[in-house]
Amino acid sequence: MKLWHIAAAAAIIVTLFGAYYFFGNHGGSEGSGVLSKTAWQRMALPGELSKAHAFLEHNCAACHTASKGVEASNCIACHANNESLLQRQPTAFHADVGSCVECHAEHRGTDQRPTKMNHLALAEIGFRQLKADHAPNGENERVRKDLLAWIGQHQPTGHGSAGHSSLTPQEAVLNCASCHSTKDRHFKLFGQDCAQCHTTTKWTIPEFRHPSSRSMDCAQCHQGPPSHYMMHFEMMSAKFAGKPHAKVNQCYECHQTTAWNDIKGIGFFKHH
Description:
34% helix; two-stranded antiparallel sheet; 10 helices; two-stranded antiparallel ribbon; 4 strands
């Protein structure tokens, strides 16, 4: 090693120790000349925690394990009894995942949520769990074969191909409906094979073109809200639209394709 390399390294070390000493004297709580625990942690802090975890700012050990980093057991210690997380259908899968860092990252600032959904990572976690069962006739082996068959049906065929999925093989094994059925805008009319049309990067489909506004087959894709199947439809909705004899499945009688509350002859209207 050249002499100037050694001098540079020594200068860096002196600078760091000087900073540590300064924070120990001015920001510490254990007296002059002694570095406090929080001072050391502040020097190593890579960024601010989110608001949800801000109370742990001076307690690194709550999440981090020495020489290992963030371990799932540390997260579970706090979130194991989180009923709002584990009893809601879209997030109940957390009870079986057993790994957190793939989708949850901290130190990104107080205005950032520590969540970034990574469907690929979720699929890989599932694969790892399936490998634990090597029994040739075990339940996991059957599921593995089903997943492989599903992968074969959803091999990427290129972006922009209507009717085909652009999911990666790992993503394609995900059961979208297990988390997203409560947000199904298709009212189960299109089944549960979401990957036929959607990707995990975004739910919108740029290639989709709505049928002509003159179409009368709206009910093939659209289902009226619950109020349309009650007397509310005949007594209020149909009358307000000026179509007292319209039937629930005759969406085209009252609605336009611009928006559901854009009523023919009236415009944007909300009567609730």
